Amino acid sequence: MDTKDWAIGMIFLLQTTAGLLGNCSLLYCFLFLYLTGGTSRSTDLILKHMTLANLLVLLSKGIPETLAALGSKHFLNDFGCRLLFYIQKVSRDVSIGTTCILSVFQVIMISPRDSRWAQLQGKAPRYLGTFSILCWVLNTMLNISVPLYTTDRLNNTTSIRHIDHIYCFSVGYSSITYKLYVSMVSFRDGFRLGLMVGSSGSMVLILHRHKQRVRYIHRHDQSARPSPETTATQSILVLVCCFVSLWTLSSVLHSCVAIFNNPSFWLKNTSKLIAACFPALSPYILMSHDSRVSRCFFL
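^ thats the sequence. predicted structure below, dont judge the formating
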């Protein structure tokens, strides 16, 4: 095994291990709070769905990439490749969708009483579970064609255009089908990204106005602390900004890989590493802003 293959394999292993540990820890905290009757927040339900989706991304992408980088290439059959890539695609899209729902929901909940979103504040928590389930159902249906264009390495004997993932192949679409697919995916991801950017801007404005209104409290009370709503909003804002930054960088690198006829070893693997960064980092961002986590592990 080359040194660079070993180095990339170790990086994939560290990233996957850290991500799995973080997401499992977060799910454990949610389960612990539920069983012990601890304080719950309106955003906990959507965070559970997002954490589960991120966990599936790491399991279906991080582990195979680690094995492939360390030299194991023929560990999946045809059915395994189709199922693995289907889970990868669905869980990735659910992760994006739940992050978008989370940012929009938080803007609604922290909006002033005289805003146009005020009438939705009482209804939004009741429909959060429905939107979460709907996100899974829609992405499961929209990605139903993914297994049709995936095959294992041993069975790939045709001369059709394909993408080599080392342990599996993505068989090329026809020209018209590929353009329609790329257009649909780009529009869907662009729309969700636009919602997240808009909601992030709204959260920044709302937090700034709130800070201006309560500034006099901090002048007279040095021990005043941010409210739980403010802390939760800040964590979601950091989470969304992290996602947008990583998604943009990942899209640029993925485009470079697709455009170049023979992309370099480091370009291809850097693109894969960046694509898995958000599922690995998100639980630590959430836990660092949630005081319940420290109490959960202490108990």
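Strands lie at 150-152, 162-164, 168-171.
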